[in-house]
């Protein structure tokens, strides 16, 4: 389509159109490009610069200290604990999102009474802001004394679990999963709706059973969207912040301190800008490795 | 060979169970919002009780809450209007005048979204501080605009791509300049696309919590920051908190439900349609 434009345009006003095109698009693109450059490159350079400084807001001035921040970062046990916590959180939520997201999307893709309402209900948690999601679960559902789940456990003769002191990471994973399963459901449901129904019909005529149709037609069709969900959710979850801030503050101890949360503590609790920035650079490198794969997937789509 | 009636009933029931399980926490919050504080922490939990608006009144009859609600509205609408105003011409240029660098530009914009916010927390925080923009609506509008700009460009771009280029081409041949093309042709032609893009941007800004918590305090905070800080007195005021939360998520639940399918495009950068 775009080629058609340039071709017909070229026929009518050859030469001039080419020139004017180049002159014209720059001012259109400039505001967006300039602002995004400012937003992405400048702070990045400053973070990189700070990361080589000993700089604490409480005890200025800043002095260059070579790679000392990085050496402390990688020899500090809490860094590795934080990385482990990040990995557990990301993997846990991803596992739940893919398994339950796919199952729910497949169920909701069937024809049944009230399907549209059921879809809205299943996807609704994605639109609930993280602090609210965190507090619904922390207070109303998981609280060992007055929470609904504690009461349900007592009903069946079990002792209520004080989630946020005995198993805080599981609680955090549950809350994030509740928000991100619907995201997977939404993406996969949309992908399912673009599945060619003729193909399914043909397979049905040829006698392929429900399971065979699912295994050989539906699931392969979901491969790419699932990969996209995995990448988008990993990038988001590596930066997960608000639920931890609202429920556990990274604790007890460092039980729920992820890499993101560790950087936040270093930066705005300890005001040690140098070491926060070194950890920030490390987080950026990690995110970029993930982003590389996502961008490759999206770019393939652009070329189609 | 049609699937048997019984299996259809079973799958329908399972689908409803799944939907109800996912929705239950929201429903429970809604129920709690209509209780008194005493009823909210009662064990066994009360299912049947005379509903009261007491908690809604108490939650909203609070200067802080009103201010933060206004901030949420101003910041999400302000950043959306700005982002669309900046992204619209850019998406127009990218969609209708593709050049050698178009794909690179789109990919580079996408890559700025991958930058973990916490990695640039310090420079942004200090930059706002130096500029006197810490805890101001303008500062937060700026952050949200830039945060959503790549998504807005991408989403508009994907909607513009569906408009036949011949229409704009005809206008161009008649000597109509880009400004008029955008205002008189593209704007009306892509109305629904712009609306869904705006909706996604509003949803993302409204729910944004990281920056709101970190660069605002008592003056420019949004509802997300208000509720995150409300949590401090442990286990107190559940009914009031639920009422405040219901009001904070209700508009976004409605907006989200209106356009869920179109949102996918923006959320996945056009990779899933």
From TrEMBL, chain A:
Topology in membrane: Multi-pass membrane protein
SUPFAM superfamilies per UniProt: MetI-like
Keywords: Cell membrane, Membrane, Transmembrane, Transmembrane helix, Transport
Membrane-traversing stretches: 26-49, 87-108, 120-137, 149-176, 222-245, 271-295
Subcellular location: Cell membrane
Keyword Membrane: yes
InterPro entries in UniProt: MetI-like, MetI-like_sf
Residues covered by the ABC transmembrane type-1 domain: 83-294
Pfam annotation, one family: BPD_transp_1
Family: Belongs to the binding-protein-dependent transport system permease family.
Protein name as annotated: Sugar ABC transporter permease
From TrEMBL, chain B:
Start and end residues of each ABC transmembrane type-1 domain: 69-259
UniProt KW keywords: Cell membrane, Membrane, Transmembrane, Transmembrane helix, Transport
UniProt cross-references to InterPro entries, sorted A to Z: BP-dep_ABC_trans_perm, MetI-like, MetI-like_sf
Membrane topology per record: Multi-pass membrane protein
Top-rank taxon, per record: Bacteria
Subcellular location: Cell membrane
Pfam family, one: BPD_transp_1
PROSITE patterns listed in its UniProt record: ABC_TM1 (PS50928)
Keyword Secreted: no
Chain ranges passing through the membrane: 9-31, 65-94, 106-126, 181-206, 237-258
Record-stated family: Belongs to the binding-protein-dependent transport system permease family.
Alphabetical list of PANTHER family matching this protein: INNER MEMBRANE ABC TRANSPORTER PERMEASE PROTEIN YCJP (PTHR32243:SF18), MALTOSE TRANSPORT SYSTEM PERMEASE-RELATED (PTHR32243)
Protein name: Carbohydrate ABC transporter permease
Source organism of this protein record: Acidiphilium iwatense
């Amino acid at each position: 389509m775009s080629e058609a434009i340039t071709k017909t345009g070229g026929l009518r006003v050859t030469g001039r159109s080419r020139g004017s095109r180049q002159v014209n698009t720059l001012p259109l693109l400039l505001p967006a490009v300039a602002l995004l450059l400012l937003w992405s490159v400048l702070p990045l350079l400053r973070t990189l610069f700070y990361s080589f400084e000993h700089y604490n807001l409480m005890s200025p001035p800043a002095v260059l200290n070579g790679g000392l921040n990085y050496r402390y970062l990688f020899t500090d046990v809490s860094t590795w604990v934080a990385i482990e916590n990040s990995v557990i959180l990301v993997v846990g939520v991803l596992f739940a999102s893919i398994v339950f997201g796919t199952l729910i999307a497949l169920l909701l893709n069937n024809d049944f009474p009230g399907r549209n309402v059921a879809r809205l209900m299943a996807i609704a948690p994605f639109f609930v802001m993280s602090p609210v999601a965190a507090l619904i679960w922390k207070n109303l559902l998981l609280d060992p004394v007055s929470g609904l789940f504690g009461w349900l456990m007592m009903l069946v003769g079990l002792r209520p679990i004080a989630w946020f002191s005995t198993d805080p990471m599981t609680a955090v994973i549950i809350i994030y999963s509740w928000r991100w399963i619907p995201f997977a459901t939404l993406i996969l449901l949309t992908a399912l709706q673009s599945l060619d129904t003729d193909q399914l019909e043909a397979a049905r005529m040829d006698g392929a059973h429900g399971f065979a149709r699912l295994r050989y037609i539906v699931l392969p069709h979901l491969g790419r969207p699932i990969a996209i969900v995995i990448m988008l959710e990993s990038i988001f979850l590596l930066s997960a912040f608000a639920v931890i801030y609202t429920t556990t503050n990274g604790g007890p101890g460092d039980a729920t301190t992820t890499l993101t949360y560790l950087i936040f503590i270093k930066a705005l609790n300890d005001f040690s800008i140098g070491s926060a920035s070194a950890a920030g650079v490390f987080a950026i490198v990690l995110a970029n490795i993930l982003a590389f794969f996502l961008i490759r997937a999206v770019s393939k789509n652009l070329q189609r | 060979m049609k699937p048997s009636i019984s299996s259809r009933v079973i799958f329908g029931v399972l689908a409803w169970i799944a939907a109800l399980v996912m929705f239950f926490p929201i429903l429970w919050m809604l129920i709690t919002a209509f209780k008194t504080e005493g009823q909210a922490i009662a064990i066994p939990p009360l299912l049947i009780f005379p509903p009261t608006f007491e908690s809604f009144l108490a939650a909203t009859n609070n200067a802080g809450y009103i201010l933060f609600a206004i901030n949420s509205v101003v910041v999400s609408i302000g950043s959306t209007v700005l982002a669309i105003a900046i992204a619209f011409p850019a998406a127009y240029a990218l969609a209708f005048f593709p050049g050698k660098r178009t794909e690179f530009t789109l990919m580079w914009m996408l890559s700025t979204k991958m930058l973990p916010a916490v990695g640039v927390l310090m420079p942004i925080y200090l930059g706002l501080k130096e500029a006197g923009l810490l805890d101001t609506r303008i500062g937060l509008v700026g952050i949200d605009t830039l945060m959503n700009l790549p998504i807005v460009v991408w989403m508009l771009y994907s909607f513009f791509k569906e408009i036949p280029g011949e229409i704009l081409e005809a206008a161009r041949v008649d000597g109509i300049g880009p400004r008029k093309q955008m205002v008189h042709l593209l704007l009306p032609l892509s109305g629904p696309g712009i609306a869904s893009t705006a909706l996604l941007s509003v949803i993302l800004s409204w729910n944004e919590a990281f920056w709101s918590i970190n660069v605002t305090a008592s003056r420019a905070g949004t509802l997300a920051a208000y509720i995150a800080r409300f949590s401090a007195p442990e286990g107190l005021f559940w009914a009031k908190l639920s009422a405040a939360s219901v009001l904070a998520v209700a508009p976004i639940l409605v907006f989200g439900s209106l356009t869920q399918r179109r949102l996918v495009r923006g959320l996945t950068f056009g990779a899933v349609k």
